[in-house]
Amino acid sequence: MSPRAACRLESLGYSDVFEYVGGKRDWAGAGWAIEGRKSRELWIGPLARRDVPTARLGDKVGDTARRAEDSGHDVAVVVTDDDVVLGILDAAALVPSSSASVEEVMRPGPATYRPDVPVQELLEKLRPKHLRRALVTTPEGRLLGVFYTDDVPEVA
C-alpha cells in the first residue's frame, strides 16, 4: 500500500501495517490472490504443476532422470537451494544411465513466466514455436511449477 495509506492506518490504531513496494502487478506476479475484474481471467499460475522434479548443479543426471520418470514428468528444473531457476533438463538430457552432472548437460537460463500471465497470451507465444510447456516463477525467479499446454481446459 502507499506510504500515505500506511500512515493513515497506523494513525487509526492498526499496528501490523506494511508497505508493499512492488505494487499490484508484483503481488499478482508472485501468485497471490487478487480481487476484481482481473481475478476472473484464467492465469497460468493455478494450472502450473507444482510436483515437477528439481535438481542441483552437482546432482547426477541419471538420478534426476529416474526421479523425473517416477513422477511422470519429461523435464527436470535445475534450481539453487532457494529454488531460483538456473536451467532445465529436457527429455533428451534425462538419460537414466548417464553419470554426467546436471550442470554439464542442462540448458541454462530457460524462459520463465509469472503466474499472472493469462493462459491465452502464453498459448499464443508457445504454439507457433510448437512448445508445450513453460516454467512459472516468482518475480525473484523462484520456481512455482511447470505449465503444460495439455492441462488447459477446453474453454480456454
Q: Main β-sheet, in a few words?
A: 4 strands, mixed
- Radius of gyration, in angstroms, nearest whole number: 19 Å
Strand content: 15-25%
Low-confidence stretches: none
Distance between the termini: 33 Å
Q: What's the arrangement of strands in the largest beta sheet? A: 1-2-3-4
Mean pLDDT metric: 87
Q: What class do helices, strands and sheet pairing give?
A: alpha/beta
How many beta-strand elements? 7
- The dominant shape is elongated
Q: What is the helix tally?
A: 5
Order of helices and strands: HHEHEEHEEHEE
Fraction in helix: 25-40%
Molecular structure report:
With 156 residues, the chain is an alpha/beta fold. A 4-stranded mixed beta sheet has the order 1-2-3-4. The protein has a 3-stranded mixed beta sheet with strand order 5-6-7, with no helix packed on it. The protein starts with a helix and ends in an 8-residue tail after the last strand.
SSE topology sketch:
Blueprint: H1 3-11, H2 23-29, E1 54-55, H3 61-71, E2 76-79, E3 85-89, H4 102-105, E4 107-108, E5 112-113, H5 119-126, E6 133-137, E7 143-148
Parallel strand pairs: 1-2, 5-6
Antiparallel strand pairs: 2-3, 3-4, 6-7
List keywords for this structure.
156 residues; 4-stranded mixed beta sheet; 25% helix
Structure summary:
By secondary structure, this protein is an alpha/beta fold. Helix content is 25%, strand content 17%.
